[in-house]
Fold:
Amino acid sequence: MLAGGLGGSTADFLMHSIDTVKTRLQGQKLAKPPKYQNMLHAYITIVKQEGIAHGLYGGIAPAMLGSIPATTIYFGTYEFVKRKMIGLKIGIPDTVVHLTAGSIGDIMASIVYVPSEVLKTRLQLQGRYNNPHVVSGYNYKNTWHAAQMIYKLEGFGAFYHGFKATLLRDVPFSALQFAFYERFKLWAMLYKNSNNLSLEWEITTGAFAGGLAGALTTPLDVMKTLLQTQKRPTTKAAKQPSPAPSNASKLTHHYYSGIWEGLLWNYKNQGIGGLFRGIGPRVAWTSMQSGLMFVIYEQVLELLENVEKKNIKIHQDNNKTFETIRDIK
Structure:
């Protein structure tokens, strides 16, 4: 649990800027041309207009508040379930063990990280307070103010907006990530003919596992972002037609009633590209985050195991010393 918490939260912090770019690309209004053309253009635009602290690292506080306990629960549950299933010794395939343990771990952690995801995603879309460069529909002063306003205006249930979509994205992602990682690590060990992988191989196997899992679950990530950040249209707004944009570009607004309806609407109106919006930064984020997370996780585990072995040896040596002294007496 300690190794997983350190690995997961450190990787989330370091990769937060890429996650912000991904969120902006997925959550931007459907305009032609769009505000953010691609990953690099989004990076440059956000830094130029909003800076790093309030732009690229907007929403970092709720991200960390959710990441530390969530990754601790996540890894602890994963290892517990995996060891219990292997301990049954009934011939369960390794892939099934890893998929099951990863899924259960994510479900347990979701209670903590989904509310933090709602806060983080809204603050990422908003950027800084009174931001003139982004129209997100939100204007929170900080994390605490955001939590207060969401609770006051939308109720406690708003903290779990997109809960099903988040689980539908993260459960398969976590299951695939761990299954890919364990499989890639096994292949690397066979290739290197060694049970101990170098730092480079640990990062590579983790990055490939996270990148592949992230790419496959991108459509679900798009819907998670849209469901958590959309605002329910008011009756008054629904009756009055929206004024045409000054640049005469066509804007399309749609309120998503659910996951599958949203997936079908995006596919019908935007094609495959609409389902895979932000796949570049998502794959970049999941691969780098996964590589860092797993390498820190493995290194901390090794460190803790060495400390435990050292303590056991000291304890054994002390016992031998006491026995010798007793024999002499």
